[in-house]
Design goal:
- It is a single chain.
- The chain is an alpha/beta fold.
- It has two domains: 116 residues, Roll (Urease, subunit C, domain 1), CATH 2.30.40.10; 288 residues, TIM Barrel (Alpha-Beta Barrel).
- The protein is built from 16 helices and 16 strands.
- Strands 1, 2, 3, 4, 5, 14, 15 and 16 form an eight-stranded mixed sheet that branches. Strands 6-7-8-9-10-11-12-13 form an eight-stranded parallel sheet.
- Helix 6 runs parallel beside helix 7.
- It is globular.
- Bound molecules: N-(iminomethyl)-L-glutamic acid and fe (iii) ion.
- The site of N-(iminomethyl)-L-glutamic acid has 13 residues, from helix 4.
């Protein structure tokens, strides 16, 4: 089955020669085709160009084609959300009220709230229920235009519950048309029963969790919350080292709460990405330049916790690439809406719409190891894209924040029917 979309007002983020990422100045140059067409074949993008479509489609051929007239509408590649924690049990709006009343994220965590609160709920929740809740979130982000997503464990904090979370993520892969990339985050917080014995917990992550996760092939990447009050650089170093021996490349939380050294230890292990980066100075920028590590910012968390925003202008000016993800989680970013993330990028980080679009597409794909197949409109890539409602320009996407500008979702070459 093929889909032919004609009269596309503007086909956004087109690549003739696909690149694995876009960095520095190039982030502000977005390639598009005005008045275009796009053709899929099976699950992949076959071809695209400027109207008129060059081959007349005979009556017989029409059988195998789904024709869509996109007059007045645009086509975007699906968003690639490279950092989420969207498998979780329940919600934590009680802490939201605590925050409104003035408590900080770290104070809430110290009182046994935060990640430990989610770990307790996850422990008490059956796998089937976790799947149902996560599917609801996946369906929601899919309708906002996300076509590939990374999902972390990290609310288990025991061998049994970390494996339970990763099994849930594996099952979601078979249930959702959204491409899912699993990451093991055993060292997300120190569980209550290990209070005062952090080193022993780290030993357990290394000697028990990592081998079992690897034995069942449950995760592609390994993450550590390397920050003030959570895990130190030395602990992160040990965990990443162990993970790499089992074939899990690093992809870590770094520099959210302080100049924690997380960026440096990530780069040391050739991490695929270092994420958060609210605390990024000249030294950190220098350390990232010329490496294969994607700096990833999470505007949702900075917004929700009212933290400092990463110095993105400085990073791009220095020649770095930047990816942007939702961090969808119950504690610091309870939304996976990538259209809102685009708006925040432009408003809060002063990113140009072109830069922000690169950050949520090709650079997000890179940060999941998926840029060969996802993240742009290119021949041979997976046919993951969406058709917008009628909109005046691609800049309208971040500008008109809050509403859903995606009208029709196509994943793996198939039109998705809303649930
Ligand atoms: O990315 N920073 C660590 N982890 C999550 C928050 C998780 C939570 O509070 O439940 C984050 O912000
Ligand atoms: Fe996170």
């Amino acid at each position: 089955m093929s889909i032919l979309i004609t009269n596309i007002k503007e086909l956004v983020q087109v690549e003739e020669k696909p690149q694995s990422m876009v960095f520095g100045k190039a982030m502000s140059k977005l390639r598009t085709i005005k008045n275009g067409w796009l053709l899929t074949e099976g699950s992949r993008i076959k071809d695209f160009g400027t109207m008129p479509f060059p081959f007349p489609i005979s009556g017989e051929e029409k059988e195998g084609f789904q024709l869509i007239d996109a007059s007045g509408k645009m086509v975007f590649p699906s968003f690639c959300d490279s950092h989420t924690h969207l498998v979780y049990a329940g919600s934590r709006e009680i802490e939201y009220i605590d925050k409104i009343r003035g408590l900080s994220y770290e104070e809430i965590a110290r009182r046994g709230g935060g990640i430990l609160n989610s770990a307790k709920r996850l422990h008490e929740t059956h796998e089937d229920e976790l799947i149902e809740q996560a599917m609801g979130r996946l369906n929601e982000i899919m309708m906002f235009g996300t076509g590939a997503v990374e999902i972390k464990s990290g609310y288990g904090l025991s061998v049994e519950d970390e494996l339970k979370m990763l099994r849930v993520i594996r099952k979601l892969k078979g249930l959702s048309p959204v491409k899912i990339v699993p990451t093991f985050l055993g060292a997300h917080a120190v569980p209550a029963e290990y209070k005062g014995r952090q080193e022993e917990f780290v030993d357990m992550v290394i000697s028990e969790m990592i081998p079992q996760v690897a034995a069942d092939n449950l995760a592609d990447y390994i993450d550590v919350f390397c920050d003030r009050g959570f895990f130190t650089v030395e602990e992160t170093d040990r965990i990443l080292n162990a993970g790499m021996k089992y074939g899990m490349r690093a992809k870590i939380h770094a520099n959210e709460l302080d100049f924690s050294g997380g960026i440096q230890v990530g780069v040391k292990y050739n991490a695929l990405s270092v994420d958060h980066l609210e605390f990024t100075g000249d030294e950190e920028i220098e350390c990232l330049l010329g490496t294969e590590t994607m700096p990833t910012i999470l505007p949702g968390a900075a917004f929700f916790l009212e933290m400092a925003y990463s110095p993105v202008r400085k990073m791009i000016k220095a020649g770095l690439p930047v990816a942007m993800a939702s961090d969808f989680n119950p504690g610091s970013s309870p939304s996976g809406n990538m259209q809102f993330i685009l708006s925040m990028a432009c408003i809060k980080y002063r990113m140009l719409p072109e830069e922000a679009i690169h950050a949520v597409t090709i650079n997000g794909a890179y940060a999941m190891g998926l840029s060969e197949d996802f993240g742009s409109i290119a021949r041979g890539k997976i046919a993951n894209f969406f058709i917008t409602k009628p909109i005046p320009s691609y800049s309208f996407m971040p500008y008109a924040y809050g509403s859903n500008k995606a009208e029709q979702i196509i994943l793996n070459g198939k039109v998705i029917q809303p649930a």
